[in-house]
Amino acid sequence: MVAKSFTAFLLIFATLVTAQGSLHNVTKKSDVFWQLADLDKRSPNETGNVFLGGQNFTWCCLKAVDNALRILDNGTLVINNNTLSNISISTVHELQSAAQRNQFPCTAKYNADPRGAPEVLIQYEWFAQTCPGWSMSNKSNLNAWLHSLSGFLLPAVIFCLSVPRRRKLHIFRSFFVADLAGIKSYLPALLGAVGAGLIVTIDTIIWLSICFAIAGPMILSGLYEAMLDNRVLEFLREKIHNKRLTLDMRCRCLMLILIGNLDLELDYYPTHIQRRNHDVVPASRSSLNRTPSPTGANSSSIDQGLLHAHSIQQPPVYRPVSISGSSAQSLTRRPTAQMAASPWRHMEVLLYDLRLYDDDDVSRSESPRQWPRHNQPPLPRTVETESSVAKAKTRLRTMLHCQYSFGSIVGAPVIFFLGGFIFAFLTSLDDLGDEDIAESIAFGSWYMIIPHIAIISGLLLAGNNPNILEGVFATERDSAVPEDPSYVLGFLRFDLVYPSCYKVAWQWLRGHTKKQWIDQLLSVYAPRADVDFPGNIDLDDDMEDLRAKTTLSSLDWFLLLSLTLLLLCLPFSLAFMTAFFTPQIGLSCRSLTFLVYFTLQLAQLCLWLWAYAGPPPRAEAEGVRQRGFRLLDFFRKGGWLDRTGFYDPSTAPWHTGDVKHNSVASCFRHLASPRSWTPRTFWCLLYYSLQTVFGLGAVFASLGGTLMQIMGVYRTNMCYTNAQYWRRPYSERPPVVLSVNSREMIQSAIGASLLFVIGRTTSC
User: Fold this and answer.
1) Which residues of 546-572 are buried (b: 16+ CB within 10 A; e: fewer)?
2) Which structural domain, as residue segments, surrounds residue 238?
3) Quick one: which of 327, 552, 583, 706 could link to 556 by a disulfide (CB 3.0–4.6 Å)?
4) What pLDDT score does 501 carry?
């Protein structure tokens, strides 16, 4: 009884207090608050389609305030908080005072008042039924879309254009009018410019999507290549100091660093080969007549026929006598027109004149011996030798200096990108509590991934323009279609960015391609034929040292992954934390977008390591004596997984034969064969299926999320609550905050600004 009396007393007391802060003789709510006038006539359902972006959540907030206000029978206006709507103040005078200082809950803007506007809560079920759909960004609200578009997305486009790539969308030559002298040519020229601009725009969007989709593998592969370059330079520095390497091997290692991002193309031969007569190289240091054998590492029947066809036309020249008394016939140096379009083969031909020792092993082609036979003296340094050395130095220096400077590639875009951050940050200080600016900063922090890719690709030593190498090698090519077109979906034609016989590896494959160059060098020069016992092969100590330096240990891979995750986590952390602590505080639409994207990048990194890191070494290689069967050998090099192609899933089974087929039809023909379903086929299909799913998911999360942020799709009912409540019924979801510039929002914006400053300082 006492409890009931006390409860009744509290209700009476609350009514008296509310009445003291109420207004009397009120006939319409809009007489006190003009914002509430004609709400029903201004309903979004009456002015447009709410499911096509016609919703107006400011109207929803006003409707919630209108529901929270009540006019009593005696004309008194009071705040009647109920289960549908709730205002964080108790009297109408407080609400009127907030309106007088321009802090009405639904239309307030930051004016340096830390109190902010009163907070308006609305029941989610009423909110979803009354205000469905989403609100398209208003052209007058520049903070909602222009900050993200001009401040961050456009600079990211500039950055992605500086990232080297292999192919681009074909632009038809018919778009360009050669003669603009007549007036009749102006209209076709204008239409051609519009068509070319449209194709370039589509191509840029495609490349930006690719950069976003596989940003993690791009960064990891670039760091992998940088580490390999550093190991090769350390190897050269050590061996040159100890005078262990020959001159041609030193040049070969340096050139490997500069051109190791090109496809080896060891088993590709052009269809049309142009035959010419060639000048004879001086006999003192000419190439030996070593017609490649069919079993040679760099040989083929095509090369044999070509060499024979040209060698029979050459006059006899001096034959140097070897230690064993046999003579080796001198031959003209093979021109590049008679060889496969392989930079490795062309490099070997170019450096052959720098050799120290002759070799009568017919299987080595233009790869000379690096060691003498017994007391065999090195070849003398003639005038021709000095000339070849000077030319090799010039070629190496030219290839290095023809690259763009790091500052021009990355420096200017970085300043441009930071300008957008500074502008957004200063704007946010003037409009604390505006969640649109905070969300723009979050997306801008996310776009830092693209500058990180550009920075990594810009610090690599290998050049991106293979035409420079063609000029250095004086490559003779007579290709009818230098663009080497490749078709996607049967009609989208993609040409080489640089029309050349050499092909630049994609950014996410550069580290793996550089390792292939090193492995090719080791496979050719590491084995040494035994002088005393013909047929016995031992290993060159220097080459084995290079193998040890360029074979990454677990600690090396941990370092690479740590740097990669740092470059990925920094943009993600800034974006995620900013979005997480921007009301609606918690894991909601924008923060969930960042989380999904980061998870997909981690999955992409796992796929890259699966395909290109290789199997774990054997226990014997680590100094552990193996006895009997070990369970871990199943996963190591030479185990069942390795033998079935588990550690090379990117190489399809129909790519492993003597004749490679890269078409989709060859894939289906292989899969239709009853014997095609091997473990290697399963690994390949699993790898490319996961890569497709993760890549498309990352594109949707990045560009799709950006587009939804710019358009305003994220301003919908679901995004006003946290993700943990999305599967619950509407009646069980928590209330939604519809007001703007509340005290909590201002405090959250101050914290986000501090987080932004700390993050940008760390990243710079």
Assistant:
1) bbebbbbeeeeeeebeebbbebbebbb
2) 220-398
3) 552
4) 85
